[in-house]
């Protein structure tokens, strides 16, 4: 008798736990349905409730939460970049059937509502995207840490990668749903056709432009100068414009500033032009005096600028033993 | 480079700035020919000599990492014959997966050296294959100088060619990858590149199928030798395409390109590693498209005879545009439908510069794929870098077909070189050529003794005052002006220009020599350093460690290290490695990363599953060798995170404040990682209680002793650069390894692992 | 007197019954502590010597007679009769002893007694054996008349552990033990047995445990503490309070005899009571002689010793010249020249069991007999087993060393996956030596000339190539022989070329 009683009690407690679990789940489902894009707006309390999981009542659904800071005063640029992407993914999940949606929720916790959580997790930056695997059910994970963080630094804010990541973690893979947007279908063809027509009519003015040697020549030379003065490095590494103290040249052989590359490009251009001037302009001068003048000018420029370039390079590369007239 | 005296206009005796000896034309021609030959020989000799620093200083040794594999492969080739090499399955690499070498490499390099080896032996020169491999690059550098000469001669005249050859011979940008011992694909690739281009230009000029066939064959060789062949594959069609757009289409172009494309493609498809790529990947589609385009244009050419010329031009243009769009559409269609593979990672990282960093940590982790900062341009090319645009400008001045080639080459390669340090190699030839063109134009202009027949500043009759009192040139004088050819007047101006030019040449030579001897001549397996008194010292840790492995480990021992050292371990110590430098299996590399990045308990099962006997780490903290494993550690973490995102997370390896630190504030995950433990095991002991400073990271290592349970230190090199640890076997009597080590340390068990304590005693009686 | 003689004859009989040779050697080092009088165990020593063991007796503190010198072992087996010793000679200190035993494969028999020291116990804990505190012993509720409660006698089957393999305690001994109730059989006698609880270590085999009606309790001090002096008594007294039992263990938990075989087939045995081998219980009335003898013969590698004589893997190839009668040869491939994928490979392994009875011949070789089992299993594994199959018995062979062995052979097709593979045979059965064999080979992809020359799927390509080249010839022919057009074009080219050249 006693035994049966105790067992009953245990049973009851279990049931309670389960029902409690279920009820929260249903609440959130309702919220998710109510919310636009199916993303539940959270605050510290509801966040805890959503992701809470105790051995007694293990969380049998998975959760994705973005910890962001949208209000203007935080000036969180990436948050705003990421927001629409996240909404799209949430919205795509909303297209899944009600039963499946019970098993995964999208949440959004803004810093303004959830300082507590930010503090607890010791987050200095936003946005952060967390995935909480379910603690019960078929997809239960037994990894030690209770959530996985989406690595923005590696994946960026792109939609594909996020969706990819998410739909692998979701109960089942789901397609990206984008509401039908007629604008491109109208705009793009019109622009193309218009462009073609425009080109056709403008051709008498454009064609000579395209065919002019000078233009191509200039373009090529500029391109060469830009690339050889390390522009791509700036693009890929996101070089600073100049040093903090405003000086031009960055310290170190494999470091450079944007303005520095511009200066170097200018130097190259000047030297190249002086060479050209000496090679092809000076001889065309049909007067010995002016020619002499021009030649001295340009050779002077060449020597001076070149030695300056060497000086700069010596500054960049300490061990460089050679120098010209300067420094 | 003496110039024959030109007869003045209308046979009048010309004014000379300085007297030149009277030499008959024939002698002049003969001597110049002889001079050219000698100069070229001397240049080649210089090119070879300037690459021998490493051999002179250390020994005839293979450099770097990849060359070690090429060297091994060459040994297989010469020892076991071509077919064995062709079907070579290397069970000692990527253990236990093994590596099918035959199908996964560019065999050109090994085959080349193999042929040389056999020829030499046939001629009874008993040369060791190692020396062939070591000396291959310099030898081909000599050939490259020659090829450059030929190429430039097509662009301008012989003297320019010689200058270009001289530049090419000693320019650091090329030496960087072709010093004696750097036995890598690029060693022969650049020669092939230049020679293919030369032959192509010849073909395009003369329209001879012979030359284009030759160029196709060399292209085939290039394909077999280096992945960079794709540059040619796109360069030549682009040249043709531009020519067509400029309305310069001719049957010469047609013949040259068609035969080049057909034969070249067939040749390239003979390389197993390339196989069907030429018809399946987008890198090769441009060539195919242009081929089709040419057919269309030729067809138009036939139509030409039927329609009047006026319509023809428009017809041609429409055709070109149409064909282009259609081809593009088809290409896009095929790519999207998956028939043509999209751009492969390496090349993708050329276009979308952000791509590699995000998608392919392995590529991003390789330093060769980093962008180029301007100093390295100047470092590698010195003054050529600014003569280069001048040369391109001059190319524009007289715009022959081959000059177009130079221009396209210049623009493309400068972009590539900007994106990838490694491709500095590709830009170097064109820089040399066009810089030489600029330079020799300068020299010729200012050496030419001929003084213009008229001088408007001195000639009395140049200006007359007419009745209105205005200065004006008389018609007669204007005629003379038209007739006169431009030139330089004063001798002083000549000297004023020539002296600095010559000086700059001298400086260039000094620069190249310095760069070569300081930057590009260290075989990274032997580090040069200085003692306290400044005398040069050699840090030979790598070789000693590899020697230790070779002599003290079992024949079939498996050694796990980060992939950079795979080839060297295989080459030096002839042991089985888990991963090596061939970017072959990401999962496997990630596995090693995981071993290094996790704690002992997690790593041990993996180690045992892969039969790892020894772990090898590179640690520079003692002497400040910055290229050590801890500085590469984050890549290991990232790569393995790509495979096991929920087990390994990069943030865990940073301090709470997000710093990458090794000192007391290092994160627990970092401190528990095998990499950290192996690197700093017993490190603080060296400082005898003092502060243990890691000289690379300039951080104080906490001197709490590090416990190693599943591995034990086997070897540590003189300067601690290489540390080797042996993996323990499971305990013989079924204890956990921590317990057995504890027992060996003398701690007694208070209770047994699983036995139920029968009659446990009170604490009192338990004596430890 | 007669009794003695009969007893001796009996002993002789017994000893011949268990006469045999160890598979690893006959030299035994016996460490006897001073508290124990060696002479009281003469029968035990005699039985061992009768079985051909050369015994060397030493005290626990004697530095001479190292177990191992210069990597060569001086003794093949060890008997530690040193329960109450707390300080040993250097080479016998637990921390030195255990590695020595394991590395050089010295089999050891440990004998305990209630006076066992903590040092010793903590050594045994390494084997996952938890001994009861000292001054405790196995007690029975109803002692034999005239004996103290710590003198336990019982039927073997009451104490014999469930899964004791026959190789450790053979059927004959069990037989003798059985039917004790009918008075014929003989009883096991355990005087002053120190019990232990065996842990869940997979290498551990519990053999004998406390029979029903017995339990572990404080050792009654009547016999020994009569002549104990005053201070000694206090000391006893406080020890008594110290070692007060907190819980009583009985039945299977209270182990008396356990054996252990390490990963590398080094064997250990624990006998809970030195008394079990004492002369007064080593009689024809007790089962101890047979029991202990069979136990030692297992520990000292006489019984249950299986060894792998040879393994071989090969593929059948047509011999270039001669070969076997059917013109084929066995071709063995190492890890550098591997087998080709999807190729039939045969693996053979020869197992033999040591036969102690054949002690007549001097050479160890002859003392092996073929070993036949039906549950041998072969893995062909790279990281994970790609193929796992049973490898059946295929008759007897005589190996090159003249040993008769049981041959197991299996032919299978290697998977279509190149890599470095291992043939792994792993046979772990308690009571027998562990068999673990692993041979490495590699599986290589097809060579360039091993693919089919013409395949159906490629016919579009063949036809395509044929058509194009044919078409090209036709085109050339047309171009050369047909019409004026071609001619004009040809000349046109020529003219243009000239023009460019002159330019």
From TrEMBL, chain A:
UniProt signal peptide: 1-22
SUPFAM superfamilies cross-referenced by the UniProt entry: Thioredoxin-like
Pfam families: OST3_OST6
Subcellular location field: Endoplasmic reticulum membrane
TM spans (from-to): 183-202, 214-233, 263-281, 293-310
Chief location of this protein within or outside the cell: endoplasmic reticulum
InterPro entries to which the protein is assigned, alphabetical: OligosaccharylTrfase_OST3/OST6, Thioredoxin-like_sf
Keywords (A to Z) from UniProt: Endoplasmic reticulum, Membrane, Signal, Transmembrane, Transmembrane helix
GO biological process: protein N-linked glycosylation via asparagine
Top-level lineage group: Eukaryota
GO cellular component: oligosaccharyltransferase complex
Membrane topology reported for the UniProt record: Multi-pass membrane protein
Function: Subunit of the oligosaccharyl transferase (OST) complex that catalyzes the initial transfer of a defined glycan (Glc(3)Man(9)GlcNAc(2) in eukaryotes) from the lipid carrier dolichol-pyrophosphate to an asparagine residue within an Asn-X-Ser/Thr consensus motif in nascent polypeptide chains, the first step in protein N-glycosylation. N-glycosylation occurs cotranslationally and the complex associates with the Sec61 complex at the channel-forming translocon complex that mediates protein translocation across the endoplasmic reticulum (ER). All subunits are required for a maximal enzyme activity.
Similarity comment: Belongs to the OST3/OST6 family.
Name of the protein in question: Uncharacterized protein
Organism of provenance: Filobasidium floriforme
Lineage, broadest ranks: Eukaryota, Fungi, Dikarya, Basidiomycota, Agaricomycotina
TrEMBL record, chain B:
Pathway annotation from the record: Protein modification; protein glycosylation
Main location: membrane
Annotated ranges, domain Oligosaccharyl transferase STT3 N-terminal: 36-435
EC number(s) on file: 2.4.99.18
All copies of domain STT3/PglB/AglB core, residue ranges: 557-607
Single Gene Ontology MF annotation: metal ion binding
Entry keyword set: Glycosyltransferase, Magnesium, Manganese, Membrane, Metal-binding, Transferase, Transmembrane, Transmembrane helix
Cited Pfam families: STT3, STT3-PglB_core
Enzyme class of the recorded protein, top EC level: transferase
Record bears the keyword Membrane: yes
Region Disordered: start-end pairs: 745-768
One of the GO BP terms on file: protein N-linked glycosylation via asparagine
One GO location term (cellular component): membrane
Residues spanning the membrane: 33-54, 100-120, 132-152, 158-175, 187-204, 216-246, 258-279, 285-307, 319-341, 377-396, 403-421
Required cofactor names: Mn(2+); Mg(2+)
Biased composition regions of type Basic residues, renumbered to the chain: 747-768
Catalyzed chemical reaction(s): a di-trans,poly-cis-dolichyl diphosphooligosaccharide + L-asparaginyl-[protein] = N(4)-(oligosaccharide-(1->4)-N-acetyl-beta-D-glucosaminyl-(1->4)-N-acetyl-beta-D-glucosaminyl)-L-asparaginyl-[protein] + a di-trans,poly-cis-dolichyl diphosphate + H(+)
Membrane topology: Multi-pass membrane protein
Matching InterPro entries: Oligo_trans_STT3 (IPR003674), STT3-PglB_core (IPR048999), STT3_N (IPR048307)
Annotated signal sequence range: none
Compartment(s) where it occurs, according to its Swiss-Prot or TrEMBL record: Endomembrane system
Coiled-coil annotated spans: none
Similarity remark: Belongs to the STT3 family.
Name the UniProt record assigns to this protein: dolichyl-diphosphooligosaccharide--protein glycotransferase
UniProtKB/TrEMBL annotation, chain C:
InterPro entries named in the record: DDOST_48_kDa_subunit, OST48_MD, OST48_N
Family classification: Belongs to the DDOST 48 kDa subunit family.
Metabolic or biological pathway: Protein modification; protein glycosylation
BP GO annotations: protein N-linked glycosylation via asparagine
This protein's name: Dolichyl-diphosphooligosaccharide--protein glycosyltransferase subunit WBP1
Membrane topology label: Single-pass type I membrane protein
Region annotation Disordered: where it falls in the sequence: 215-241
Location(s), subcellular: Endoplasmic reticulum membrane; Membrane
Originating species: Filobasidium floriforme
Alphabetized PANTHER family for the sequence: DOLICHYL-DIPHOSPHOOLIGOSACCHARIDE--PROTEIN GLYCOSYLTRANSFERASE 48 KDA SUBUNIT
Bias-annotated ranges (Acidic residues): 227-236
Tagged with keyword Lipoprotein: no
Residue ranges of domain OST48 N-terminal in the record: 27-299
Pfam families: OST48_MD (PF23358), OST48_N (PF03345)
Domain OST48 middle stretches: 336-481
Keywords: Endoplasmic reticulum, Membrane, Signal, Transmembrane, Transmembrane helix
Function: Subunit of the oligosaccharyl transferase (OST) complex that catalyzes the initial transfer of a defined glycan (Glc(3)Man(9)GlcNAc(2) in eukaryotes) from the lipid carrier dolichol-pyrophosphate to an asparagine residue within an Asn-X-Ser/Thr consensus motif in nascent polypeptide chains, the first step in protein N-glycosylation. N-glycosylation occurs cotranslationally and the complex associates with the Sec61 complex at the channel-forming translocon complex that mediates protein translocation across the endoplasmic reticulum (ER).
Residues in the signal sequence: 1-20
Transmembrane segments: 459-480
GO cellular component terms given for this protein: oligosaccharyltransferase complex
Subunit composition and interactions: Component of the oligosaccharyltransferase (OST) complex.
């Amino acid at each position: 008798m006693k035994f049966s009683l105790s067992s009953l009690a245990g049973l009851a407690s279990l049931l309670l736990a389960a029902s409690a679990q279920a009820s929260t789940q249903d609440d959130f489902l309702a919220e998710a349905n109510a919310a636009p894009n199916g993303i539940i707006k959270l605050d510290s309390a509801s966040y805890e409730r959503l992701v809470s999981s105790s051995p007694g009542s293990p969380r049998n659904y998975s959760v994705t939460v973005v910890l962001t800071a949208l209000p203007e005063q935080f000036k969180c640029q990436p948050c705003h970049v990421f927001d629409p992407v996240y909404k799209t993914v949430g919205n795509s999940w909303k297209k899944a059937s009600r039963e499946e949606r019970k098993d995964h929720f999208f949440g959004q916790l803004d810093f303004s509502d959830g300082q507590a959580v930010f503090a607890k997790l010791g987050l200095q930056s936003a946005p952060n995207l967390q995935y909480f695997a379910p603690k019960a059910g078929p997809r239960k994970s037994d990894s030690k840490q209770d959530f996985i963080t989406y690595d923005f630094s590696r994946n960026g804010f792109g939609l594909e990668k996020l969706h990819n990541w998410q739909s692998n973690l979701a109960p089942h893979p789901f397609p990206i749903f984008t509401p039908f947007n007629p604008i491109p279908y109208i705009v793009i063809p019109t622009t193309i056709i218009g462009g073609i027509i425009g080109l056709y009519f403008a051709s008498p003015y454009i064609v000579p432009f395209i065919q002019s040697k000078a233009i191509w020549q200039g373009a090529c030379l500029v391109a060469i100068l830009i690339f050889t003065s390390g522009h791509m490095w700036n693009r890929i590494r996101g070089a600073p414009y100049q040093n903090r103290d405003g000086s031009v040249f960055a310290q170190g052989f494999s470091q450079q500033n944007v303005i520095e590359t511009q200066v170097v490009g200018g130097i190259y251009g000047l030297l190249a032009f002086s060479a050209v001037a000496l090679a092809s302009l000076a001889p065309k001068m049909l007067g010995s005096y002016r020619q002499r003048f021009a030649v001295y000018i340009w050779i002077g420029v060449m020597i001076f600028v070149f030695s300056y370039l060497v000086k700069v390079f010596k500054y960049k590369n300490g061990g460089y033993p050679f120098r010209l007239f300067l420094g | 480079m003496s110039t024959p005296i030109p007869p003045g206009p209308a046979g009048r005796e010309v004014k000379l700035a300085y007297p030149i000896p009277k030499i008959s034309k024939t002698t002049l021609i003969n001597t110049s020919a002889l001079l050219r030959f000698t100069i070229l020989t001397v240049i080649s000799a210089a090119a070879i000599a300037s690459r021998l620093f490493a051999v002179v200083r250390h020994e005839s040794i293979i450099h770097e990492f990849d060359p070690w594999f090429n060297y091994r492969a060459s040994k297989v080739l010469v020892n076991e014959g071509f077919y064995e090499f062709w079907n070579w399955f290397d069970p000692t690499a990527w253990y236990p997966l093994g590596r099918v070498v035959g199908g996964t490499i560019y065999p050109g390099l090994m085959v080349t050296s193999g042929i040389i080896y056999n020829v030499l032996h046939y001629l009874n020169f008993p040369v060791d294959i190692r020396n062939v491999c070591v000396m291959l690059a310099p030898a081909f550098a000599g050939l490259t100088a020659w090829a450059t000469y030929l190429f430039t001669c097509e662009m301008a005249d012989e003297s320019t060619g010689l200058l270009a050859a001289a530049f090419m011979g000693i320019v650091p940008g090329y030496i960087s990858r072709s010093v004696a011992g750097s036995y890598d694909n690029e060693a022969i690739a650049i020669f092939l590149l230049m020679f293919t281009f030369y032959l192509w230009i010849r073909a395009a000029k003369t329209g001879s199928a012979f030359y284009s066939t030759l160029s196709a064959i060399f292209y085939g060789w290039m394909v077999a030798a280096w992945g960079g062949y794709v540059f040619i594959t796109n360069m030549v069609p682009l040249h043709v395409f531009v020519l067509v757009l400029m309305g310069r289409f001719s049957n010469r172009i047609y013949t040259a390109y068609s035969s080049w494309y057909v034969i070249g493609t067939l040749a390239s498809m003979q390389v197993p590693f390339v196989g069907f790529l030429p018809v399946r990947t987008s890198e090769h589609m441009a060539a195919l498209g242009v081929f089709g385009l040419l057919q269309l244009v030729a067809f138009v050419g036939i139509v030409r005879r039927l329609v009047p010329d006026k319509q023809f031009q428009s017809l041609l243009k429409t055709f070109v545009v149409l064909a282009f769009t259609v081809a593009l559409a088809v290409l896009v269609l095929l790519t999207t439908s998956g028939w043509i593979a999209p751009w492969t990672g390496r090349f993708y990282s050329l276009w979308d510069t952000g791509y590699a960093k995000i998608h392919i940590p392995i590529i991003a982790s390789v330093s060769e794929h980093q962008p180029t900062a301007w100093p390295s341009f100047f470092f590698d090319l010195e003054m050529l870098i600014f003569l280069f645009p001048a040369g391109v400008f001059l190319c524009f001045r007289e715009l022959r077909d081959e000059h177009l080639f130079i221009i396209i080459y210049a623009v493309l390669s400068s972009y590539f070189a900007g994106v990838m340090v490694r491709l500095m190699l590709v830009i170097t030839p064109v820089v040399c050529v066009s810089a030489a063109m600029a330079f020799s134009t300068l020299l010729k202009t200012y050496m030419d003794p001929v003084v213009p027949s008229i001088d408007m500043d001195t000639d009395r009759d140049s200006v007359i005052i007419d009745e209105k009192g205005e200065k004006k040139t008389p018609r007669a004088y204007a005629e003379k002006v038209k007739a006169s050819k431009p030139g330089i007047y004063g001798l002083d101006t000549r000297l004023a220009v020539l002296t600095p030019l010559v000086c700059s040449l001298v400086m260039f030579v000094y620069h190249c020599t310095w760069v070569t001897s300081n930057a590009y001549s260290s075989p990274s397996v032997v580090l040069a350093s200085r003692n306290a008194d400044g005398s040069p010292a050699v840090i030979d840790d790598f070789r000693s460690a590899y020697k230790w492995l070779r002599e003290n480990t079992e024949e079939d021992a498996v050694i796990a290290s980060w992939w950079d050292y795979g080839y060297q371990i295989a080459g030096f110590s002839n042991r089985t490695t888990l991963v090596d430098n061939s970017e072959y299996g990401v999962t496997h590399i990630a596995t090693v990363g995981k071993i290094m990045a996790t704690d002992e308990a997690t790593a041990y099962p993996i180690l045992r599953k892969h039969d790892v006997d020894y772990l090898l780490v590179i640690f520079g903290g003692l002497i400040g060798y910055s290229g050590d494993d801890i500085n590469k550690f984050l890549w290991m973490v990232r790569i393995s995170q790509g495979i096991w995102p929920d087990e390994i997370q990069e943030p865990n390896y940073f301090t709470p404040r997000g710093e990458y630190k090794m000192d007391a504030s290092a994160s627990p995950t970092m401190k528990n990682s095998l990499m950290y433990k192996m690197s700093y095991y017993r490190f603080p002991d060296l400082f005898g209680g003092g502060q243990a400073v890691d000289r690379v990271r300039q951080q104080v290592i906490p001197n709490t002793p590090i416990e190693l349970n599943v591995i034990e230190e086997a070897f540590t090199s003189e300067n601690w650069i290489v540390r080797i640890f042996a993996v323990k076997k499971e305990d013989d009597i079924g204890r956990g390894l921590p317990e057995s080590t504890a027992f060996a340390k003398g701690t007694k068990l208070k209770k047994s692992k699983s036995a139920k304590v029968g009659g446990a005693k009170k604490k009192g009686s338990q004596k430890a | 007197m007669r009794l003695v003689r009969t007893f001796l004859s009996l002993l002789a009989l017994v000893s011949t019954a268990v006469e045999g040779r160890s598979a690893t050697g006959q030299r035994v080092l016996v460490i006897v502590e001073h508290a124990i009088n060696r002479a009281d165990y003469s029968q035990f020593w005699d039985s061992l010597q009768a079985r051909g063991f050369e015994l060397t007796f030493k005290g626990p503190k004697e530095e001479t007679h190292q177990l191992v010198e210069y990597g060569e072992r001086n003794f093949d087996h060890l008997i530690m009769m040193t329960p109450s010793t707390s300080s040993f000679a250097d080479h016998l200190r637990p921390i030195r002893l255990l590695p020595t035993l394991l590395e050089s494969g010295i089999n050891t028999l440990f004998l305990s007694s209630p006076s066992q020291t903590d040092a010793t116990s903590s050594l045994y804990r390494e084997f996952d054996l938890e001994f009861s505190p000292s001054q405790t012993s196995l007690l029975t509720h109803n002692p034999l008349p005239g004996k103290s409660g710590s003198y336990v006698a019982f039927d073997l089957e009451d104490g014999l552990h469930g899964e004791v393999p026959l190789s450790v305690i053979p059927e004959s001994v069990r037989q003798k033990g059985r039917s004790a109730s009918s008075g014929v059989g003989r009883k096991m006698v355990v005087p002053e047995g120190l019990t232990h609880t065996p842990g869940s270590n997979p290498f551990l085999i519990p053999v004998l445990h406390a029979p029903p009606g017995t339990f572990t309790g404080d050792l009654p001090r009547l016999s020994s503490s009569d002549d104990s002096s005053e201070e000694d008594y206090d000391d006893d007294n406080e020890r008594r309070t110290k070692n007060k039992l907190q819980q009583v263990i009985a039945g299977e938990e209270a182990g008396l005899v356990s054996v252990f075989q390490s990963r590398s087939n080094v064997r250990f045995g624990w006998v809970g009571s030195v008394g079990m081998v004492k002369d007064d219980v080593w009689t024809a009335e007790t089962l101890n002689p047979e029991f202990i003898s069979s136990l030692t013969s297992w520990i000292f590698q006489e019984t249950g010793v299986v060894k792998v004589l040879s393994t071989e893997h090969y593929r059948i190839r047509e011999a270039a010249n001669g070969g076997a009668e059917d013109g084929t040869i066995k071709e063995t491939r190492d890890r550098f020249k591997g087998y080709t994928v999807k190729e039939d490979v045969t693996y053979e392994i020869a197992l033999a069991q040591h036969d102690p009875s054949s002690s007549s011949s001097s050479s160890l070789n002859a003392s092996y007999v073929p070993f036949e089992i039906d549950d041998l299993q072969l893995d062909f594994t790279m990281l994970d087993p790609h193929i796992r199959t049973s490898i059946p018995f295929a008759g007897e062979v005589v190996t090159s060393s003249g040993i008769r062995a049981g041959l197991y052979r299996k032919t299978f097709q290697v998977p279509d996956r190149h890599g470095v593979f291992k043939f792994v045979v792993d046979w772990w059965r308690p009571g027998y030596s562990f068999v673990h064999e692993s041979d490495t080979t590699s599986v290589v992809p097809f060579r360039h000339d091993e693919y089919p020359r013409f395949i159906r799927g490629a016919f579009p390509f063949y036809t395509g190539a044929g058509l194009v080249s044919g078409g090209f010839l036709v085109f050339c022919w047309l171009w050369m022989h047909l019409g004026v057009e071609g001619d004009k074009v040809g000349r046109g080219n020529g003219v243009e070329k000239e023009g460019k050249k002159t330019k």
